From TrEMBL:
<feature type="domain" description="MmgE/PrpD N-terminal">
    <location>
        <begin position="12"/>
        <end position="249"/>
    </location>
</feature>
<dbReference type="InterPro" id="IPR045336">
    <property type="entry name" value="MmgE_PrpD_N"/>
</dbReference>
<dbReference type="Pfam" id="PF03972">
    <property type="entry name" value="MmgE_PrpD_N"/>
</dbReference>
<dbReference type="InterPro" id="IPR036148">
    <property type="entry name" value="MmgE/PrpD_sf"/>
</dbReference>
<dbReference type="InterPro" id="IPR005656">
    <property type="entry name" value="MmgE_PrpD"/>
</dbReference>
<comment type="similarity">
    <text>Belongs to the PrpD family.</text>
</comment>
<dbReference type="InterPro" id="IPR045337">
    <property type="entry name" value="MmgE_PrpD_C"/>
</dbReference>
<protein>
    <submittedName>
        <fullName>MmgE/PrpD family protein</fullName>
    </submittedName>
</protein>
<dbReference type="InterPro" id="IPR042188">
    <property type="entry name" value="MmgE/PrpD_sf_2"/>
</dbReference>
<dbReference type="InterPro" id="IPR042183">
    <property type="entry name" value="MmgE/PrpD_sf_1"/>
</dbReference>
<feature type="domain" description="MmgE/PrpD C-terminal">
    <location>
        <begin position="277"/>
        <end position="449"/>
    </location>
</feature>
<dbReference type="GO" id="GO:0016829">
    <property type="term" value="F:lyase activity"/>
</dbReference>
<dbReference type="Pfam" id="PF19305">
    <property type="entry name" value="MmgE_PrpD_C"/>
</dbReference>
Length: 462
């Protein structure tokens, strides 16, 4: 490998992953990583009760291929790659999974399914699994950070894209590939990384499988590299590399140094936020601002003249436009990406939970009428992408205007949910599918992952 090649992003990331040692990871980082795995796994169990997951699993069963790899919450097993796809769909399907704020990526939903599948294939230890998970999270977060939120502006889903590269390294790490093959795996992943935002137009289900597809892509890329297949040497910074090809016109705003900055010293896992609400993370600050004003002033619907939500300019296309559609979502997935609807729900019901995405609540005429009174403005004081801030101005019929701003998202890196809060969320999600005793068993198994000598000690509980 020549000197120039040794300085590429893909080589630096390969060296980081190849030399990764769990003993060098601070204990608090390891413990938080286990909390994130717990959170994602609980969401997977909840997702099994929804139609999108039943149809997705039905599609995979049509291949009629026997398998040995677990599908979370179902009691069934599927082939290697199908299980990774299924588990990614289950973790991400409710849009309740964690977010790395600056990278704008949901890495657990891609990395954890990849870890599970490859670990089963390779009979990895619990330490190897936890190390691969943390390494994958670190890589995926940084690859998202390079773009500074620009993927959303051109209709790409960064989780599916960054996740494929991260998973190529996760799979390669668990397969114990050398640095050179890890680098090739990233080059091969360039032709696989994908994720499109057209689902926003009609509430389509496609976004839900993007992380699982990233896991599959990573597995495929690492396997091809293991066999000696040759991939491009500049998958990130090349003339037709990731950012040049996906961010035409916006690529000059990328900061390539962020892809490798702080490796082994700054732990981006700690900057991953756990969601308190089952909706796009861009909406959470407006939900909390509405809840604050509603509680403080004991607001009722009949007092409201209009509501204005202030949001970062970068999130408008995702959660505010086209406004007419966002004011009248026709299905749960549209509702989860609608600031007007979620603000209305928060004011009317004083909360927002999975129950509010059921057909009857979605059809509530009171919420529907209020959502039509909610408009948006671009927030001139936005801290995006460091913070997904939000502000709500509620104009009352008596002329008063009530205002509240949420500078930082609850659940994110500097307003984290506690371990108890994450556990409570886990049990609430699991109760949709399994008993509390079984959920407790799973919780204890995940939190003790690093002590297991074989992946089977975990999967026997899952």
């Amino acid at each position: 490998m020549n000197k120039q090649a040794s300085q590429t992003i893909s080589t630096k990331l390969s060296q980081f992953v190849h030399g990764f040692n769990l003993n060098n990871v601070p204990l608090d980082v390891q413990q938080y990583a286990l909390q994130l795995i717990l959170d994602g796994t609980g969401i997977a169990y909840a997702s099994t009760q929804y139609d999108f997951s039943k149809k997705g699993l039905e599609a995979l069963r049509l291949f009629k291929e026997p398998g040995e790899h677990i599908v979370l919450g179902t009691g069934e097993k599927m082939p290697y790659r199908d299980a990774a796809l299924a588990n990614g769909l289950l973790i991400h399907g409710l849009d309740f999974d964690d977010t790395h704020v600056a990278g704008v990526v949901h890495m657990t939903s891609a990395v954890w399914p990849c870890v599970l599948a490859v670990a089963e294939k390779c009979n990895s230890t619990g330490e190897e699994m936890l190390a691969a998970y943390i390494a994958g999270m670190e890589v995926g977060a940084r690859l998202g950070m390079v773009a500074k939120g620009a993927f959303h502006q051109v209709g790409h889903h960064p989780t599916g894209i960054a996740g494929a590269f991260a998973c190529s390294l996760v799979a390669a790490m668990l397969m114990k590939l050398p640095v050179e093959q890890m680098t090739m795996a990233q080059g091969i992943a360039l032709s696989m990384a994908s994720g499109n935002f057209e689902f926003l137009e009609d509430g389509a289900w496609t976004k839900r499988y993007h992380p699982g597809w990233a896991a599959v892509s990573g597995i495929m890329a690492a396997t091809f590299a293991k066999a000696g297949y040759i991939g491009p040497s500049l998958p990130y910074e090349g003339r037709f590399g990731l950012y040049n090809s996906h961010l035409i016109g916006l690529e000059p705003g990328c900061d390539y140094d962020l892809a490798t900055a702080g490796l082994n010293s700054v732990w981006e896992v700690m900057n991953v936020g756990v969601k308190p609400y089952p909706s796009c993370h861009f909406t959470h600050a407006c939900i909390d601002a509405t809840l604050h004003l509603t509680k403080e002033h004991q607001l009722t619907v009949d007092q409201i003249e209009s509501i204005t939500a202030l949001v970062p300019e970068e999130v408008v296309k995702t959660v505010c436009e086209p406004l007419e559609n966002k004011q009248a979502p026709t299905c749960a997935y549209e509702a989860q990406f609608s600031v007007p609807y979620l603000v209305a729900v928060a004011l009317v019901r004083h909360d927002f939970t999975l129950a509010d995405l059921e057909p009857t609540p979605l059809a509530d005429p009171v919420v529907a009428a209020l959502a039509k009174k909610v408009i948006y403005q671009v927030d001139p004081n936005s801290g995006f992408p460091t913070y997904y801030s939000g502000e709500v101005h509620i104009t009352l019929k008596d002329g008063r205007v009530l205002k509240h701003r949420e500078h930082k998202n609850r659940g994110c890196f500097d307003r984290p949910l506690s371990a108890d809060d994450i556990a409570k969320k886990f049990f609430l999600n699991c109760q949709l599918a399994i008993s509390k005793n079984k959920a407790t068993e799973i919780q204890q198994a995940i939190l003790n992952l690093a002590s297991f000598s074989s992946v089977t000690e975990l999967t026997s509980h899952l």
